[in-house]
Amino acid sequence: MKYLKAEFRIAHKGGNDIEDMALLQIAKDILCEYAGDAGFESFEEDGNFLIGYVQEGLFNKSILDENISNLPISGISISYTINQIDDVNWNKTWEEEGFEPIVIKDKCIIHDTLHNKEHVGNNYIDITIDVKQAFGTGTHETTAMIISELLDMNLNNKSVLDCGCGTGILSIVASKSGANTIVGYDIDEWSVKNTIHNCMLNNANNVKAILGDVNALNSIDTKFDIVVANINRNILLADMPMYVNKMNQGAILLLSGFYVQDADKLITKAESLGLKLVGKSELSTWCMLKFTN
Ligand SMILES: C[S@@+](CC[C@H](N)C(=O)[O-])C[C@H]1O[C@@H](n2cnc3c(N)ncnc32)[C@H](O)[C@@H]1O
């Protein structure tokens, strides 16, 4: 998938680096929010720079330029360069080095194929993730919050829709927790292949993985008891009507992949579609929302 990579430089007006770390952090937080309005979905920090990624077709340059020329902090300027890249490898480091096993809620252990797994208890849900280019090991706050929520729910014989399935981790948790029908889809071919591969590794044979965006759901008649979507603010806002359309009566929708400060926008949208907020978690700067219909 084609992405644009932007390198934002945050400086004092006049060009000097910012040495006040607290001020720099405030500027970065504001920039993440403003760049999010323009379609950016992911950021990395590098000193006075912030690196942002946006899918090519979703970049709105005029919103970005307008936002950064109207910063609510004085004396700061932001400039940026932008380049096209073929894909983002969300897991470059993990692919090479693996990741340490992660235990969630004393109920589930997730480990890679490189490290020996630590046996933490026979009744743990045990998940192997072979990390390729796709996103989703459980180490990220957004994935961990959804897994944690799924582990507290009764998934026996439930149907689950996994929007933006990445490595397939949420589908695998659902399968191992007793869900009977699971459909995952992802816009990224790498992710769909990786989901299929990881499902095979984990004997999660009841997961069907589809390549496509939300429109791929038009070809599916099923409605679901649980819909999970860990993507990003703008995709969630745009695709939420379809998620709602695919929910059975009394179903649960779990949304993550956005910053705490964006929660209100998502709640407003969900309520306009008839959903009720029934839960909210925050981990670091990230948020997860739980709705029912
Ligand atoms: C943050 S990752 C989440 C992966 C995994 N579900 C997890 O919770 O760790 C977001 C995934 O959504 C996919 N994605 C991005 N835009 C999408 C869209 N419009 N429709 C479907 N999937 C999308 C990305 O390719 C990526 O695999």
From TrEMBL:
A single Gene Ontology MF term assigned here is:
protein methyltransferase activity
Q: Please name the SUPFAM superfamilies in this protein's record.
A: S-adenosyl-L-methionine-dependent methyltransferases
Q: Output the Gene3D superfamilies linked to this UniProt entry.
A: Vaccinia Virus protein VP39
Is Methyltransferase one of the keywords? yes
Lineage top rank: taxon:
Bacteria
Keyword entries, A-Z: Cytoplasm, Methyltransferase, Ribonucleoprotein, Ribosomal protein, S-adenosyl-L-methionine, Transferase
Keyword Cytoplasm set for record: yes
Record-linked Pfam families = PrmA
A biological-process GO annotation: methylation
**NCBIfam families linked to this entry:** PRK00517.2-2
What is the name attached to this protein's record?
A: 50S ribosomal protein L11 methyltransferase
Q: Which gene encodes it?
A: prmA
